[in-house]
Write a structure and sequence with these properties.
Length: 163
């Protein structure tokens, strides 16, 4: 095996490992938020990372933790719910990445479960202190809104959303 071939294999392995780490972080969000583990959810974000969900702005890891601890969220998980994020598509560029996925929020009702919301999710991530952290997550309802479609299209292309 030549040095060039070995270097190429190492580069490809690193990309796969990065994509897998990003996918795992995104897939962890649902179980952690449904468990009400505010600190673990917040650790998915960079210290100054943002989360914009339907115009509700969180500007830091502390804001994300506060959202999980909020009466509204605690009531939601206390009644029964499932935040499910579908498979993520990640595009890595060095220590920066973009990922996209769709999500559903399922809530328990007296007669069973119902999808309460379906969303488009666009993530910007950065490798900080050796691990991938969310620097910005934007979520929009998949209700025909062109902004949601923009998040999906931009994320699949590995680009930031159009403003």
């Amino acid at each position: 095996m030549t040095d060039d071939r070995l270097a190429e294999l190492e580069r490809r392995l690193r990309r796969i490992e990065d994509e897998r780490a990003i996918e795992r972080a995104i897939a962890s969000y649902g179980p952690l938020v449904d468990a009400g583990d505010a600190d673990a959810v917040a650790e998915l974000w960079a210290a100054d990372g943002g989360y914009d969900v339907e115009g509700w702005q969180m500007h830091s890891r502390a804001d994300v933790a506060a959202m999980v601890r909020s009466d509204a969220h605690q009531g939601l998980i206390g009644r029964g719910c499932c935040h499910f994020l579908g498979p993520a598509v990640a595009t890595v560029d060095g220590d920066d990445a973009v990922a996209v996925c769709q999500s559903i929020l399922v809530t328990r009702r007296d007669d069973g479960f119902a999808v309460w919301r379906a969303g488009a999710n666009h993530f910007r991530l950065r490798r900080i202190d050796g691990r991938w952290q969310v620097v910005q997550r934007s979520t929009r309802a998949l209700d025909g809104n062109p902004e949601a479609r923009n998040l999906l299209a931009a994320g699949i292309a590995g680009l930031p959303p159009r403003t």
